[in-house]
TrEMBL record:
<comment type="similarity">
    <text>Belongs to the PP2C family.</text>
</comment>
<keyword id="KW-0904">Protein phosphatase</keyword>
<dbReference type="InterPro" id="IPR036457">
    <property type="entry name" value="PPM-type-like_dom_sf"/>
</dbReference>
<dbReference type="GO" id="GO:0004722">
    <property type="term" value="F:protein serine/threonine phosphatase activity"/>
</dbReference>
<keyword id="KW-0479">Metal-binding</keyword>
<dbReference type="InterPro" id="IPR015655">
    <property type="entry name" value="PP2C"/>
</dbReference>
<keyword id="KW-0378">Hydrolase</keyword>
<dbReference type="GO" id="GO:0046872">
    <property type="term" value="F:metal ion binding"/>
</dbReference>
<keyword id="KW-0460">Magnesium</keyword>
<protein>
    <recommendedName>
        <fullName>protein-serine/threonine phosphatase</fullName>
        <ecNumber>3.1.3.16</ecNumber>
    </recommendedName>
</protein>
<feature type="domain" description="PPM-type phosphatase">
    <location>
        <begin position="61"/>
        <end position="355"/>
    </location>
</feature>
<keyword id="KW-0464">Manganese</keyword>
<dbReference type="GO" id="GO:0045926">
    <property type="term" value="P:negative regulation of growth"/>
</dbReference>
<dbReference type="Pfam" id="PF00481">
    <property type="entry name" value="PP2C"/>
</dbReference>
<dbReference type="GO" id="GO:0009414">
    <property type="term" value="P:response to water deprivation"/>
</dbReference>
<dbReference type="InterPro" id="IPR001932">
    <property type="entry name" value="PPM-type_phosphatase-like_dom"/>
</dbReference>
C-alpha cells in the first residue's frame, strides 16, 4: 500500500471504468463510490443491523448490537462495511446517535451517506495528490502528503458536504434535530478515527506487564470543554446547566431557552449552527500493534454508566465474539437501572471491532452471521 498505484488497483476492481467516465474522460469519483456500495451490498459485506461480520481471509471481525431505550423510537444506528472501497485490508465502522424529533431519520441519513461520500472524497484526494507527485511513496521519510493527511482531508470534506446536504434535504427536518458520528477506517495496520459529537471510541490493548488496558481514542465533545465553550461564546451562544441537571452543560441560543443541546458538535441542529455548534470532525490515527486487541465504538448511553475499563473487560471476557456487543449493552442496561433509577434509559448501541483473527471466529465461509432477531440488510 506504499504507492498510489497499489491504492488505485483496488478501487478499480468493483466497477467497469466505462461506467464511471465523465465527458472529460476522467474517473467520476461519485459514480465509482456508488458502484462500490452496490457491489458491497450484493456481496453482503455491509451490515446495518445487529449481527456479526467476518470475511474470509481478513484480520477484521465486528460484532454489532443496538437496543432501544425508554424515550421512544431507537435513534441510534450503526454500520460495518468489510472490504471498504474494494480494498481487502480496509473496513469502515460507525455509530450514529440521533437526537430531537427527527433524530432517527437524521442518524440513518448520515449513516447511509457518509461511507460513499468518504470514498468519493478519498478517491478525489488520491487523484489530486497523485497528479502533484505521481511517484510519491506514502511510507517514505520525505513524503509531503501522508496517508493521514489524505484521510483527514477526505473526512473534513465529507462531513462538510454531508451536513450541507442534510440542511437542504426535502424530507428530513433537521432544524431542531441532529446526530453524532463516530467512525473508524482501518487500512492495514493503521486506524483513522473521525469523531463528531459525544459518542466514543475505546481501544483495548495490553500493557507491558500483560494486563488489559483501556485507551480512549476520542474526546467527548461537550459544551463545557474550554476550546468548545470559547467557540460557542465567541459565536454569541451560551453554555450553562439547568438547575435540575447539575453537571449537564448544554448549548443555548443567545436570547431563548432553546435548544439545550448537550454536545458541541453534531450534524444537523441548524437552529444552533450559527451560535457555535459545528460538524467539523476531530480526525486522528493510530498504528495497530500485536498488543492491540479490539476497539469499542458506542453511543453515550453506554458511557453514561460503564467506564472504559469496565467496557473492555466485559468484551474480553465474552467467550464468543459475535455476542460481545450484545453482552456489553446488556451489562450497561443493568448498570443504568442501578445507577440511574428513575431516569429514562437512553438508547444504547455498540460496535466491537476485533483487530486480529481468532480461532474462535465463526466459519470462514460465512461472510455475515446475524445475531438472533437481527433484521435483514437494508
Amino acid at each position: 500500500m506504499g504507492h498510489f498505484s497499489s491504492m488505485f488497483s483496488g478501487l478499480a476492481r468493483s466497477f467497469s471504468i466505462k461506467k464511471v467516465k465523465n465527458n472529460n474522460g476522467t474517473c467520476d469519483a461519485k459514480e465509482a463510490a456508488d458502484e462500490m456500495v452496490k457491489d458491497a451490498k450484493k456481496k453482503e459485506m455491509i451490515l446495518k443491523s445487529c449481527g456479526y461480520v467476518y470475511a474470509e481471509g481478513s484480520n477484521n471481525s465486528a460484532s454489532v448490537f443496538s437496543k432501544r431505550g425508554e424515550k421512544g423510537v431507537n435513534q441510534d444506528c450503526a454500520i460495518v462495511w468489510e472490504g471498504f472501497g474494494c480494498q481487502e485490508d480496509m473496513i469502515f465502522c460507525g455509530i450514529f446517535d440521533g437526537h430531537g424529533p427527527w433524530g432517527h431519520y437524521v442518524a440513518k441519513h448520515v449513516r447511509n451517506s457518509m461511507p460513499s461520500s468518504l470514498l468519493c472524497n478519498w478517491q478525489k484526494t488520491l487523484a489530486q495528490t497523485a497528479l502533484l507527485e505521481p511517484e510519491l511513496d506514502l511510507e517514505g521519510s520525505n513524503k509531503k502528503f501522508s496517508r493521514f493527511d489524505i484521510w483527514k482531508h477526505s473526512y473534513l470534506k465529507t462531513c462538510a458536504s454531508v451536513d450541507q446536504e442534510l440542511e437542504h434535504h426535502r424530507k428530513i427536518d433537521s432544524y431542531n434535530s441532529g446526530t453524532t458520528a463516530i467512525t473508524i477506517v482501518r487500512q492495514g495496520d493503521v486506524i483513522y478515527v473521525s469523531n463528531v459529537g459525544d459518542s466514543r471510541a475505546v481501544l483495548a490493548t495490553s500493557s507491558d506487564e500483560g494486563s488489559l488496558v483501556a485507551v480512549q481514542l476520542t474526546l467527548d465533545f461537550k459544551p463545557n470543554l474550554p476550546q468548545e465553550k470559547e467557540r460557542i461564546i465567541g459565536c454569541n451562544g451560551r453554555v450553562f446547566c439547568m438547575k435540575d441537571e447539575p453537571g449537564v452543560h448544554r448549548v443555548w441560543q443567545p436570547d431563548t431557552e432553546a435548544p439545550g443541546l448537550a454536545m458541541s458538535r453534531a450534524f444537523g441542529d441548524y437552529c444552533i449552527k450559527e451560535y457555535g455548534l459545528v460538524s467539523v470532525p476531530e480526525v486522528t490515527q493510530r498504528h495497530i500493534s500485536a498488543k492491540d486487541h479490539f476497539i469499542i465504538l458506542a453511543s453515550d448511553g453506554i458511557w453514561d454508566v460503564i467506564t472504559n475499563q469496565e467496557a473492555i473487560e466485559i468484551v474480553s471476557s465474552t467467550a464468543e465474539r459475535p455476542k460481545a456487543a450484545k453482552r456489553l449493552v446488556e451489562q450497561a442496561v443493568r448498570a443504568w437501572k442501578k445507577k440511574r433509577r428513575g431516569i429514562a434509559m437512553d438508547d444504547m448501541s455498540v460496535v466491537c471491532l476485533f483487530l486480529h483473527s481468532s480461532s474462535s471466529s465463526p466459519s470462514l465461509s460465512q461472510h455475515v452471521q446475524h445475531a438472533q432477531h437481527a433484521t435483514t440488510f437494508k
